[in-house]
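Q: Sequence in, structure out?
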Amino acid sequence: QMAEVDADFTQVNTILEEFDKGNFKGGLASLRECVEKFEPESKAIPKALTFIGIVSDHLGKADDAIKAWEEAAQVMEKRGHNTPVSEDKYEKSPLSNYVLVCSKISNLCVEQANNGSGYRKKKRTVMYGPTLTASDEDEEKWKNEKLLKANLYNAKIVECFAEIPERRNLYRTKMADLYMKLKDTQKACDIYQQAHTEDPEEVKWLVKWADCLSQLGKKEEALQKLNQVLETAPSCVPALQLLLSHYKSAGDDVMAKQTQQKIRFYGWVPDFCTNLHYTPEIAAMVSEFLRDSGEEEGEDEVVDEEKEKEKEGEEEKEKEKDKEEQEVIKKNEKKDKVSKNPMQIIQKLRERVDNASTEFLAAVCYHHYHGSLENAAFDALKDRAADDPFVSDMLFTLLENHGSVCTIKGVIDILATIKHPSALRVLLNLLPQDIQFYPMNVPKALAKLNDPEAIPALISCLQLPEEGAEESTEEKPKEDEGSDFDSDDEMFAEIGNDRLVDSSIETLASFSSSHAEARNALDRASRDLKRKNVRDKAHSVLYVVCGEEKSGKYLKETLKSSESLYYTAVHYLADNIKDVKETGQTLERKSE
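A: Exactly. Output:
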């Protein structure tokens, strides 16, 4: 980002080219010489010092790296490079370079503190040698000094981001976390209190503040802060976890158990489910899904066995309010036993057509419960998607927040089935990405959508040779020292690209009778002499779907010869005609 180019910059950039050639020691010495001989006001000095630090760190000289970066930071400070700017100006400002250097110092100091004085790292190799300190006490002191230096530079960054709250809060959190490591809880508490004062809408500051207060022994004040969080954000799991610890330490088993149920519930419910609120009934349903997936085995114990024995019979002596709470829990545990099977729960949700039931079904799809359970949830969403805009919106939310390829596959199948107005746009965006190990089945969804606007994109997936050429001119990359290509890449390409090509051929076949462009692409694919998988599959669909005699002849002759058909063509033929054997037997087109 040093836009101005002068003689000093040119010299530094020339030296950096030595690093690209692997000449680290020579380049490092040259950079140091530059710093010494450049005029004090040279604009190239910060860049030279920054790269001295980067290369020193790469060569395992961590202390030299920190020293160079600290010198660079001092030069930048004298020149006003630490002056706060707005977000829109940040990336192209000198401040971004200053923050880079300060963050490198902080990160390396934390890395040293976490690993100890015997930690060494050179290039990509890590080793642990004897510590540089004489005793455990000295080692702890050494680590603390590193953490304090890290926080010194975190504080500098926080000051720089006076006009960029999000970036400022990120480094504020880092500062407080390091103070907690240093066992200086009060300083961490002060940071979170200040952050909450400046940003009262962000609940995480209040939660962290409450955590610090609890550790400082201010339990009641901490409880007040947690209840304040849960009034506005009842689904805040970190706040609930701290509340659970409070109830456990206070020996309040009833409230501890109820809080544990809420933690399980809100831990399972995705953040985008804003209508799915905690009730004992829905919490019991969530527990069933957790148990079914093996994530939960029975009810969680909230007290140890000895405490349980000591307090046996105390429930009868609880206050009236606590007794009522316990009765509610027991009543819902009985309800829970009525519907042990998650499939029954989904059936129940199908009957309750409201936003909450839709979100529960979406949550099941989000968590990717394999097989019939997940399929039933998608079917339920499909049944209500065409008539309910909320369901359509939820499908797009699922797509944006998917946790697995199967979620994408289920959503796009529904969008194609109901002919959603945005389905084509979504599918065309996903089409080139359908090369993962587990397919999204985008071409199949396009076939179901049956929109001819998809034909050009499907044709481009085939990577056909230019019109008039009889074979593909595609050449496979060669593995060499300067290339990212690896010999295993070919195997992975067959899993990904070849499958996309194969599926695209089948989908184009569905358009071939009414769209000459699709039929022409299949004809060209059947003439691809370099790619047998493309040629054989194209002939197969031309024969089965279009009744093309030339393709039938090609298939028969291939089967009669010693050469076998590509396996994807064999599977397709086996699924679509009466009898296929890899012999000379005549192929018969399957009747309508």
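The chain has a mean pLDDT of 84.
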